Amino acid sequence: MRLIRHPLVKRDLLELVxxxxxxxxxxxxxxxxxxxxxDALLAEIAANxxxxxxxxxxxDGWLVRHGGRGHxxxxxxxxxxxxNALYVTLVAFGGQDWMSGSVGRKTFVNESLLSQxxxxxxI
Length: 123
Known about the structure:
By secondary structure, the protein is an alpha+beta fold. It has helices spanning 9-23, 28-47, 98-103, 111-122; strands at residues 2-5, 53-54, 63-67, 73-80, 85-93. It has a single domain, classed as RelE-like (YaeB-like fold, 2-Layer Sandwich). Strands 1-5-4-3-2 form a 5-stranded mixed sheet. A hairpin with an 8-residue loop joins strand 2 (53-54) and strand 3 (63-67). Helix 1 (9-23) runs antiparallel to helix 2 (28-47). The radius of gyration is 15 Å and the shape is globular.
């Protein structure tokens, strides 16, 4: 399954690493372990993209999964099985307000983007 990240997911990951390094007095290995946990959770989601808590309005159609040590990692996503695509709109850590952050990002999966992806897939 193709993984398509919202452009702000990169910022999410950088902020997560910065937060962990700062709160652990420079423990880069701890941040690296959390990134590994995110990769593992993304692999689990890709293997079973229908698994997760379905979200209500204003995030209808999106799902959320929590994982990693202490279930402190949150990933908000939407699968498009016809396109074999997994859209990730947000990666959060700890007590972040992932619900509000996701609402502002759900528009990256719009009809024009989906149409472009379908056109490319048909070629």
